[in-house]
Amino acid sequence: MARSVVILGAGITGSLLAWRLARAGWRVTVVEARHVGAGSSSRTAAGIRQQFSTRESVVGMRHSVSFYRRFPDLVGGSGPPIVQNGYLFLHALQEDWEAAQRRVQRQRSWGLAEVEALDARELAPRFPWVDPHAVLGGTWCPTDGFLRPEMVYNEAMAAAQRQGATLVQGAPVTGVEGRLDAVLTPKGRFAADWFVDCTNAWSTRTSRLLGATDLPVFPLKRYLWFLQRDGSMDEATLAAMPLVITPSGAYCRPENRASLLAGWAHDAAPEPAFAYEDQDLIEPAFFHRSGPESVAFQTWANLAEVIPSIGEFAGITATTAGYYATTPDHNPFLDVDPQVPNLVRLVGFSGHGAMLGPFTSLVGEALLTAGRSLPEVQVESETVSTAAFAIGRPFQHAETMVI
């Protein structure tokens, strides 16, 4: 008899895991509090990169890029949800630039052969819109880029349902039956052999309902802004731009041929009790209509210091918001819960959930198939330690490349 699983949350992580498990013969039920993609998955900058500082993340992200390129053949849909415009990390301080060059050497040793470290002189012919006097150099990976997240969660969930998975929307978990024999919702009782927490920013509340380990997953508000193209940068140049991270951490990428998406991490207090509607609540200090003192305009000005033609754009047309689910070391938890032996936790992505989705679902399937925590998993032809993602790990090897 096929084993059964209830997946809590229908974002990118839950949808891809549902597809993977249904394809493998599991009886899958996805229980979603609102609707598919209602949480952070629909509010993400959706960058996808392989430029990380830990081997596990680099290998996992190489798999994710490959998966997204093959997405129509594996999952379905009209085309791949990945746009491979590349990622360009720019550096202006000597210490940062030297660290970036060492990191590139490690990344290449971990199989990311195409990543390069380019000094300001080498950047100029490839990226003429970067002010060479504003930076010392940058690291460039042409196979990085960004995703169309709605394609991922919608197509993956549709594919899971074609394989027999059941989707129940508008069904927030209100309690459990037994130790964790079933979850209770307004839409009914859902029993299974295994349960998977894919609620990410909601995970602290989920864990309390399930009687699970209280993980250090902190919801932090993040904002995105959209700038209308104008001036000397033409449509083709904008459309071909990579995702660019300036030395201060402000970043941008094309949304389309007429619009640039921009963001900038800022200090924020965790909001563990946020309401669903708070995802779209814009604080005045971050709203583009609050005037030139807002963080929106500060971000625009910061980008223009490194990419002068952005300073010629017509203006900021929109502000959106959502939540990162951060952890102390910016690595997710991908493990069986030590307090509830039939519960897998796939949460705490620190802004990397969309890009990690294929790797996360692979690890999730491996944990469920084994029925226990695993010291390592097989990722295509390579073996990856799970120590960086284990519940209860010491937070001493933090992911340093966080935006």
Observed structural traits:
403 residues; alpha+beta; FAD/NAD(P)-binding domain; 28% helix; D-Amino Acid Oxidase, Chain A, domain 2; 22 strands; 10 helices; six-stranded mixed sheet
List the helices and strands and how they pair.
Blueprint: E1 4-8, H1 12-23, E2 27-31, E3 47-48, H2 55-69, H3 71-74, E4 82-83, E5 87-91, H4 94-109, E6 116-119, H5 120-126, E7 137-141, E8 145-147, H6 149-162, E9 166-168, E10 175-177, E11 182-185, E12 188-191, E13 194-197, H7 203-210, E14 218-228, H8 235-240, E15 243-245, E16 251-256, E17 259-263, H9 295-306, E18 315-326, E19 333-336, E20 343-347, H10 353-370, E21 376-379, E22 382-385
Parallel strand pairs: 1-2, 1-13, 2-9, 5-15, 13-20
Antiparallel strand pairs: 3-8, 4-8, 5-7, 6-7, 10-11, 11-12, 14-17, 14-18, 15-16, 16-17, 19-20, 21-22
